Amino acid sequence: TWNLIDTGMSGLTGNAQAWCTQIAVDPADPQRLYLSAQVGPYQGSTGARGGAALSGLYSSADGGAHWAQQLPTLAFADVVIDPSDDQNVYAGDQFSGDGGASWAPIATAPSRFTVIAVDPADSQHLWGVSLAGVEGELWSSADQGASWNQVTMPQSDAVYNLAYDPATPGTLYAASMAFGIYKSSDDGSSWESATDGIAGVFPFDMLVDSTGDLYMGTEGTGVFKSSDGGATWVMKDRGIAVNIGTSGITAHKLIETTPGTLYMTDRQALYKTTDGGDDWTNISGTAFGGPHIIAADPQQADTIYAGAGNQVVKSIDGGANWTHSSSGLNTDGVVSLAVAPTDSKVIFAGGFSTGLFKSSDGGVTWSRADTGMPVAFGIGCIAVDPTTAQTVYACPGNAGIYKSTDGGGTWAKAGDLPDFSFQILKIDPHDPEMIYAAIPDLGVYVSTDAGVTWSQLDDPASSPASHSTQAMVHHGTASGAQAASSGQPVRISEIAVDPRHARQLYGATDDAQVYTLGVTAAAGSTASDGSSSSGGGGGFPLVASIMLLGFAGLRRRK
CA 101, 107, 112: angle at the middle one, nearest 5? Predict the structure, then answer.
């Protein structure tokens, strides 16, 4: 239960633009509190650049019963009390040596600090994170702020928070939005990565290349590669610019053209690697704006397409040169793109809210191709049958999956999927009747009959089948799916189909776990009422086995 304690700062209560960014409790006097508030448009956890009259530091001497405003109009994120001397208080680039009675700017601070850390063993030793110039610069002072030296981190200056180990002198941690956690055991003289086993990676895209290597594109933490089926992962970000202040390195879409040659977009630039991700080069140049989506010609390795803004651009020389390819393409933003595997002149492009378009001449001209399909909420994903360009699947927002058997001429709802906004759609290249559709973090649906019927995969760890390698599946209905096993849906953020084996795919979750899924036809299942029977369901025989890759119990992958 909670009580509102805002006496002395009631102007913040109910104010839609008021934010409490930090609370600090005096370790020597728990009744003394400090609170950092900012009023104005929210600018992230690092605080606003300025503040309104109600912004600033508030303090309480009676456990929050009453508050008094200090440092009015200033806005900052961090308030820190010196662990060894509670009279020393830091708020942004302001310092008080008398428990908040008076304040002055930190001497010779290089710029406004949004984060301050005080060495618990030495009050003279300070650390500060500055947002001046390059966001996330790390600075150190050995004389309580009289002078400062900038600290160079191993991979980036994108430091966003700091923490001392109170029990181990000289041990300091730095959090980087782009590169995870760094650790120093020598008072900041040297740093090393400390991300082994860390959770919280959000996958945007997964790719299994032609040799079996796995690539994972993530939000904020970049590109990871595994060469042992997901048992171990290595970051592959060299050459990719860090978009500091937004989300670090975000790898939005990955494609492979030939072994070792991949393309990646982070929505701001297009990158290429020819050595399996060891080195990346920005190939977007000034030809177009930030690409949202990319696709490759399956028959011509050097021909790639990118959806950038409301246009499609094309390169026939591996990204060295680009041409615009948008005649007749009247979209408000290209968000999905697919090239037909059997006829690379056939391309489909989905708009943000303007429908589906088709080109039959390699992107020279385009026309609408969405008759019978609801398009108001955009086309989140497109997949073309690997054996014929006449069979196409698409994901119109909030409408499930639609299918065309005449090359996009007309469309109809594919089976009995719920009217969800699907964002992931994959066809098994060895078995075109095997289709996977997913809503990130909400569920994965499987069809083994080219979209006629679907089943939702259950997480084996949450069902009675959790002690075996067999996962329960069940039938999806228009109102959602109910499993007889009472299992929870597999909450996969991204899936990738293995191009080497039929009915084999990988899935990644946003808590850094990777699953492998093998789906094989099973004989003798007759369930047709939405219940699960012998591991099958949905009116067709299906057995799905999910195995956590090399996990001991639920050990997380890096």
Answer: 90
